[in-house]
Amino acid sequence: MLSRTAQCLYWMSRHMERAELNARLLEVGYRIALMPSTSSGYQSEWASVLSAAGAENGYARKYGPAKQQFIEQYLFHDLDNPSSIASCIHHARENARIVRTALTTQVWDVINTVYQEVQSLAQQKYLPANLPTICDWTTRQASLLRGAIESTQLEDEGYDFLNLGYFIERADNTARLLDVKYYVLLPTPAAVGSEVDHYQWSTLLRAMSAYRAFRWAYPGLQTPDKVAHFLILNAACPRSLLHCLSRASRHLDQLENILERPTEAQNLVAQLKTSLINRNIDSIFDEGLHEFLNDFTRQIAALGETIRTSYFLGGF
Amino acid sequence: MLENHFFNEMFDNEEVREPYRQVIEWVRSMPSDHVAVKHSEAEKLFRRIGITFVTYGDKSDAERLIPFDMIPRILTPREWRKIESGVRQRARALNAFLMDVYDAGEIVRAGKMPAELVYRNPAYEHEAVGFKPPQGVFGHIVGTDIVRTGADEFFVLEDNCRTPSGVSYMLENREIMMRMFPSLFQTNRVAPIEDYPEILRRTLSSVAPPKCDRDPVIAIVTPGAMNSAYYEHSFLADMMGIELVEGQDLFVDDDLVYMRTIRGPERVDVLYRRVDDAFLDPLCFRSDSMLGVPGLMNAYRTGGVSICSAPGVGVADDKAIYTYVPEMIHFYLGEEPILNNVPTWRCSNPDDLAHVLDQMSELVIKRVHGSGGYGMLVGPTSTKKQIEDFAQQLRAEPHDFIAQPTLALSTSPTYVEEQLVPRHVDLRPFCLVGKTTYVCPGGLTRVALKEGSLVVNSSQGGGVKDTWVLVE
User: Fold this and answer.
1) How many CB pairs under 8 A join A and B?
2) In terms of pTM, does the model score above 0.95?
3) What pLDDT digit, counting tens, does each position of B317-334 carry?
4) A101, A105, A162, A316: best to mutate for the B interface, most B CBs within 10 A
5) Domains of chain B: residue spans and CATH
6) B225 touches chain A (CB under 8 A)
7) Angle between helices A157-179 and A224-232 (to 10 degrees)
8) Predicted ipTM?
9) Other Cβ atoms closer than 10 A to A257
């Protein structure tokens, strides 16, 4: 397989997963905005959503102060924002188009249809009430693509690159979503444990479609350390950091079997996984959740770079 | 102009011509609303599969469909024999010409062609001088554009030796027809075309370079997904089971060419390139260019890789060179041309120029190096003022122009607004040249969907048809 083909498959799924992150972030935004009072008022939820999406500066340059309508516009439709949902879908589809012949007809059909639909959504008039619908639409499209891949793609090296894209991106996304809650939304220690605090954690779980799964896995009261444990260290949770690293590691091992050569990326992901397994949630809270998550996203970025140099250069 | 002025491929006066009889019966037996339903079904299939071409500078709907007409264009065995042998003959003559002009230049020495026209031609590639490509072939895929003006009158409009496109439409049109109307293929005996990709692959394998000592690894080189023919590139790669590469996917090491793969470098022996010469190797052609593969031409010249079509092939399909193809056929093959050129006046010749200036309102006058309809005068549709202005240019630089009569293109029955009407068509058969020569039975028929229009280009509202060659 050409390095560029592998790279396109990897980025196709990364972009689709990223589109899903934006939808989930928007969902956190509007759900929390429905709450009457938070410590710093209406603006901060939306500002924190922008910050978690890494879109603060781009937004501020274009629109100035945070305002729901513009944030929605910026995170969903705006092609000037390289990680808006529409941009991600464009990129995912463009990558798919380049490697059309490495995808099944069904996978192509889904991604091509999503692309056509996002263009027609852009034509619709803005209505605040539409936000839940478009968030829902995005996560549903992402599931359709995921399903088409799982049920039709040959499980060869291309499949491994598609999955690597998914899990690397998802690890990064879960860390960002967690960080919105812990660091950005609730900076004052006094608020910890309050009603607001509790509501925000629930919102986070709901936005990640993980509320019920959490309930199944953790009987008793919902506490921040349980939620954090669920999203960081519980390998059974499909969005947890540990789960994502385990899956990435599995696909890198499969690639070793196919290509008959070990890579740097494989070592690095194994290291990251081991160091997570050896952590417990108390030590993470002691270190500071924000610091831990920041450090984690840096390591994921480094892992992405190592995957690039391990597979996508193709030289001697 | 009266319709009966043109050769109608379906009707001979009121009589339906033999090859169309069964198809017409089939169309007439269908309820009228059924035809419309089938038509939109075909369009949906095309869009689903994604057979589109990209138009530049149009963000709104960057990918368009070429309209597909479901009434096939049908050729009898006798008609096809003439086309087939004529196309084969031209492909042989053009390759003989290329071998000659990059070697001793006998045709020029014999005074059959002006030296300046060949050696000063912008498409003449000095990098190719003295190199003999494997099997003596420069042009491996030749697309010959043919128009018909009468029952036995076929003319060649132009030869395409560089990177002729359209073959994916030829294959997909047949695929869709067989899927939608299987019964038609039971009552009509149509020559199959499905093995084209396999024969192309064999053709490319047969021109493997001297340094290749194994089953050759082949790749298609594309300019990228933004190219208007990208669908065709990926389609062919898929059908042949080979990689589709861009310049950035290739590199040269020790005069051998490698693809960058997830396993590391993989050597490649034959490149079927769908890029211009200028984008092959920045060390040879355009030092300002970041595109292409540095060192590729050295690998080519030292027998490390074959490039199809060979660099320098463009000199054979230049418009001014075209007028000499009948001479090439005489000179290299000692044969009479089976397919005629459109009668062409070379304005560089004073007698021809005088005639052209006299008849401007009836002729089509073209610049020899122009393409895509630029620098062109269509006499019958031009104003007096336009003709006078053009005459000035013509007198100033007669060498730059040729002139041809306005051709009466034949018509084929076409389904327009729920009716069967005659529309003008042309034909591009595809000829593959390697160790052996093969002409695929059929080709791409393009049809001008506008009433009376003679312009079949897809960029100007042209469509495509499945092309049938009946078997005896």
Assistant:
1) 59
2) no
3) 888 899 999 999 999 999
4) A101
5) 3-209+305-336+408-469 (no CATH), 210-304 (3.40.50.11290), 343-405 (3.30.1490.270)
6) yes
7) 160
8) 0.80
9) 9
